[in-house]
Structure formats: structure tokens, C-alpha cells
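Long-time lurker. I teach an intro course on protein structure, and each term I like to show students one example going from raw sequence to a predicted 3D structure in C-alpha cell notation. This year I'd like something fresh instead of my usual example. Would anyone be willing to generate the C-alpha cells for the chain below so I can use it in lecture? Attribution to the forum is fine with me.
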Amino acid sequence: MRKNEPRQILLVEDNSTDIELTREALEASKMLTNLHVVQDGVAAMAFLRKESPYCDVPMPDLVLLDLNMPKKDGRQVLEEMKRDEALKAIPVVVLTGSASEADILRSYKLGANCYITKPVGLKQFITVVRSIDNFWFKVVKLPTRATNDHQQSFKSR
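-- Reply from a regular --
Happy to contribute to a lecture. Here you go:
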């Protein structure tokens, strides 16, 4: 990923208010992003595996994952991602309303890269999103999207 190329972020979230709050926070943070949104775990896995109707979507650079969703919850998505060779290198930030120690521990055991409890209010949410941008896209060295795409195409052979 080049410096001026938009970051591809997959938001897996079923709450429309939280989706809008995330959009606003990303816009306010001045991050160059393409935000892709799916509202349940089944759609998240279809997106990540580029299954219909997501055949032409880019591989995300980062996944923001809620835990409590319909059809397939975030824990199941996280477990499937981290078992899949083509997906396990994608960083997953659990961004959820749960502050439960059991959820935190289980998320890390399943391979979450970090766990953030959703803050209340736009100002705090913007601060969290800026921290995510700074850490995941400025401090941490991630595999390039081309490497991830190569893994995905190699797996499908």
C-alpha cells in the first residue's frame, strides 16, 4: 500500500447509529479510507472470501469487528478468519460495546489484534479512530495488500 492510497477498512457492525458514528469519526480524523460495511457475520465472511455479491471488493487492510451481531457473531467471524491462511494476517480490531472480561479474554484467545470498548460520544470516538489510524497505519508495518491478494488467489487454486 502506497502512502497516498486509501486504506481499505471493513466495518462489521449491525447498529446503524454505530455505523454512522464510525463514518463521521473517519471523516473527522482526515484518514484517507474506503469504508466497506457489512451488517452481520455471514456477510463479513462472504466479503473476506470475495463470494457473491462481493466478488470484486478489495481485500481490507483492517477489520473493525463488533461482537454481538445476527446470523454469525463476531467471535465466530474472528475464529474463522484466524483459521483461514488467506485471512489470518489481516489485523482485526474488536470494536464493541462489551466491556466483559470474558469477551476480552475470548477475543484475544481467538486471535484479535486488539480490543476496544466503544466510547460514548463522537469526540471520544474520533480520538479512538485517530489512535487506530496512527497505530495500525503509521506505526505498525503490515503486509501489503498485494501480498494478501496473492495469498487469496493462491488459496483458490
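Some talking points for your students: The helical segments are 16-29, 41-48, 74-83, 101-109, 122-139, 145-155. Confidence is low (pLDDT under 50) at residues 150-157.
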